[in-house]
């Protein structure tokens, strides 16, 4: 069965993703650590001890080729892509082998600036348009994933 793996610690579209995945009969899992317990009725929540990347490594251990992952963590996304996962951000951007290297480089450069005492722009305030963009792209990804799983 196709799975949806959600890096739920800072995911603003958990409920929307769960609703959509239920329409496609995709089995969802929420991943969080003990300091961010995110649970929903009738949804499997996998809670791991708090620690650097502990959620990421647990999610990766469950991921199977063709599963869908929702995360905003580019490092986790890169590892999921390498394992054959389909990755989408909470804003509806699909992360692929074609764009992940550039995003990781940008993240690295931003971290260098911050370590040197500089400032970088944070994320913009979330809008309803962001939710609509996510829903549109996520539905496309669900349909494509189901089609490829059936082949």
From TrEMBL:
<protein>
    <recommendedName>
        <fullName>UPF0178 protein H9632_04605</fullName>
    </recommendedName>
</protein>
<comment type="similarity">
    <text>Belongs to the UPF0178 family.</text>
</comment>
<dbReference type="InterPro" id="IPR003791">
    <property type="entry name" value="UPF0178"/>
</dbReference>
<dbReference type="Pfam" id="PF02639">
    <property type="entry name" value="DUF188"/>
</dbReference>
